[in-house]
Amino acid sequence: MVKVLRRLGVDLDFHNDQTCCGQPAFNSGFQSDSKVLARRFLSIFDRDEYIVCPSGSCTAMVKIFYMDLFRDDPKLLAVAEKVSSRVFEFSDFVVNVLNREDVGSRFNGKVTYHDSCHLLRELHIHDEPRRLIRSVRGVEFIEMKLHDECCGFGGTFSVKYPDVSVSILDEKIESIINTGADALVSTDMGCLMHIGGALSRRKVLVKAMHISELLASE
Amino acid sequence: MEIGKLEFKKDSQRAVNNKTLQRALIYATDRLRERRKAAVEKVKNWEELRTRAREIKEEAINNLDRYLELLESNVIKVGGIVHWAKDAEEASSIILDIAVKRNVKSVVKSKSMATEEIELNHVFESSGIEVVETDLGEYIIQLAGETPSHITAPAIHKTKEDIARLFSEKLNIPYYPESEQLTKVARDILRGKFLNADMGVSGVNFAVAETGTIVIVENEGNARLSTTLPKIHVALMGIEKIIPRFSDLSVLLSVLARSATGQKMSSYVSFISGPRRKNENDGPEEFHLVILDNGRSGILSSNVTRESLYCIRCGACLNICPVYRKVGGHSYGWVYSGPIGAIITPQLQGLKKGSELPFASTLCGACKDVCPVKIDIPRILLELRRRVVEGRSEDRVGGGFFQKLGIKLWRLSMEKRKIYEVLLPLSYFLQQIWTRGSQDMIKTLPFPFSLWTKHRDFPRVSKHPFRERWKEIKQL
Q1: pLDDT of B128-159, one tens digit each?
Q2: Is the N-terminal amide bond of B448 cis, ω within 30° of 0?
Q3: Same domain, B290 and B414
């Protein structure tokens, strides 16, 4: 992500204080624990012009669910609204803020794309990653069947109900294999860890890549 | 109906290992998904219709008391009798009482989730009254002694072969492999039941406050027969079935059929306003409307979850749900399954019994996108999760000791940068010992991480985490 954004002339900074936006606790029902981390996030990123995140679900947490979290706290709600308007998922940022599609990358092979649920259904980003992928030289883009079906990760769901989670994942893996793709690209670290973990376990020769890794290829 | 604590974990595990069930579920949900999609794509103002449908239900639920009273007075005006039931027990005894007083021996029923909810069949049977389900799917599961596994397609968990075997066994007939043959068998049997029934019981899809009309949506004509042939018609509705005006139906009927089965309109839509009039030739002599609460009014007080009551029971959220597609309806433990079941069962049956259900979702949000009344199911699931973990003391369930401990430790390490920065190299160190310095993804881990590594590899912790490398990268 650093490589691509720098290539596009973005001046980058990284706050060493940052940890987590609080999504895992929020999604598990531990909202008060989540709040502590959300407040921390807001104080760390309070003064940045743009905040770019390589995961759709983390972005959705800050942009959408922080508003739920601070519903009854007008002061923090105002801060959350301000900060969240500056938070962008990586592909959204490149296409809609930087107005770039071709970022000068090359990758020789077939690529398929998995829609991460929060990016697609909370942030409504569907075309942007596809446009970025299609602009990479040497890429043949193949849409998979069930491209917008959840991979079964669901945070703690993946360990709470591992059998169900993996059963959902099985169909995803089958969809990916059927495309004959060399690489599976996605925009969320959770999905990639899940799908990538299964591809590796089953010795399937499809590389699970974050979209920024694909765009960083030259 | 009183249910015990639900066992989603155990039941879902059994379901994913049942190959026949898996085949049936994929086949059925694929078809229903495709049909819905094709139907919706043909409607230019689909989003507008959904918004309008939601507004109608919102208005109805926000003014529930007023509209229910209006409904009551209008049903009485057209000659019907209205009964109020606070819970399942009351509803059952009201209906049984109607039957017993009129010496009813046999009852035909059309598909109704509310009657499933109060287990009306058991009530009739234990009083020696014959009751026959006349919807084909319901007839099948009644024969099998099961409960519905889908809101609109109750026998969705059964393959054609399952049904052929069931019919052969229970009806003492040869094994008929074709659907047409099986349907004919059911039809022949059911005709006789319709003609002999003393009472018909139905559900209600919509109850129009302004006219006292109940509306029943179906495809087989069995509801039409059940509500017109017998002398007595009893309709059971949950309080949330109310809609303000007759004209609202133009919106609601068009979103319901498309969402449920991909039809523009179902084959039959019956509008029933009271019993047969003096100058009319058909229709029942008596019409009773039983209005059931059974926990619904308890949902009204929450701004976040109130919209659970907007549901028009189309089943689209079940069909699109990746979890339902794997675990089927019975894993949800009560009559309502899938995403809508995961939000209404805990609210109607109590958070203690249904505490697992809000967690039985990946929060993928597909349900919200297909819902014809735009119920924000993921947000309601999150709210119910919060209530399970930190809610009021009477329904506080907690997340289990280890989960709680895990979350607290995790939070601490995320909150204190120092701890986080010690944990990173520490986990790298432990990883190196555990994997003996291998460079591959991690294949096995001790409990509880083994819940992940049983089926999936786990990424390695980097020796040089990004925050460390940033110091150098920054200078470049």
Answers
A1: 999 999 999 999 999 999 999 999 999 999 99
A2: yes
A3: no
ipTM: 0.96
Cα dist from A48 to A34, A94, B172, whole Å: 22, 17, 76
Question: For B72-81, what is each residue's pLDDT tens digit?
Answer: 999 999 999 9
Chain A contacts of B457, Cβ < 8 Å? 196-198, 200-201
d(CA B380, CA B363): 10
> What's the number of domains chain B is made of?
2
- pTM assigned to the model: 0.95
Confidence of residue B466 (pLDDT cuts 50, 70, 90): very high
Question: Under an 8 A CB cutoff, do B411 and A149 touch?
Answer: no
pLDDT at residue B406, as a whole number: 87
A17 interaction partners in chain B (CB closer than 8 Å): 417
Domain co-membership, B415 together with B278: no
- Chain B segment 2-31 residues within 8 A of A by beta carbon are 8-9, 12-13, 16-17, 22
Q: What is the CATH number of the domain that holds B235?
A: 3.40.50.10420
Contacting residues of B for A20, CB less than 8 Å apart: 414
**Chain B: residue nearest A19 by CA?**
B414
Q: Which residue of B has its CA nearest to A173?
A: B456
Name every residue whose Cβ is closer than 8 Å to that of residue B186 and which is 6 or more positions away in sequence: B136, B139, B140, B167
Return the number of other C-beta atoms located less than 10 Å from residue A159's C-beta.
Answer: 17
Indicate whether B436 belongs to any domain. yes
Q: At what angle do helices B136-144 and B160-171 cross, to 10 degrees?
A: 60
Residue appearing with tokens 């379901």? B15
Cβ contact, residue pair B385, A29, below 8 Å: yes
Residue B404, pLDDT score: 84
In what helix (H) or strand (E) does residue A208 lie, and over which residues does it extend? Answer: strand A207-210
Instruction: Give residue-wise pLDDT tens across range B314-372.
Output: 999 999 999 999 999 999 999 999 999 999 999 999 988 898 999 999 999 999 999 99
Verify whether the Cβ–Cβ distance B361 to A157 is below 8 Å.
yes
Nearest CA distance, A182 vs chain B (angstrom): 19
Which of the four pLDDT bands, split at 50, 70 and 90, describes residue A143? very high
Closest approach of A199 to chain B, Cα-based (Å): 8
What are B232-283's pLDDT values in tens digits? 999 999 999 999 999 999 999 999 999 999 999 999 999 999 999 999 988 9
In degrees and rounded to multiples of 5, residue A102 shows phi and psi of: -85, 115
B412 lies within 8 A of chain A by CB: no
Q: Which of B266, B294, B322 is the last residue of a domain?
A: B294
Range of the domain at B192: 43-294
What pLDDT sits at residue B397? 53
Q: Which domains does chain A have, with CATH numbers?
A: 2-94 (no CATH), 102-216 (3.40.50)
Residue B221 lies in a domain: yes
Asked if residue B411 lies in contact with residue B399, where contact means CB atoms within 8 angstroms, the answer is no
Could you say which of B277, B294, B311 is where a domain stops?
Answer: B294
Does residue B79 form part of some domain? yes
Instruction: Indicate which of A53, A163, A186 best probes the interface with B, i.e. most B CBs within 10 Å of its own CB.
Output: A163
Residue B390 confidence (pLDDT): 81
Residues B278, B146 within the same domain: yes
Q: How confident is the model at residue B401, as a pLDDT?
A: 76
The verdict on residue B373 lying in a domain is no
A20, A33, A175, A186, best to mutate vs chain B, most B CBs in 10 Å: A33
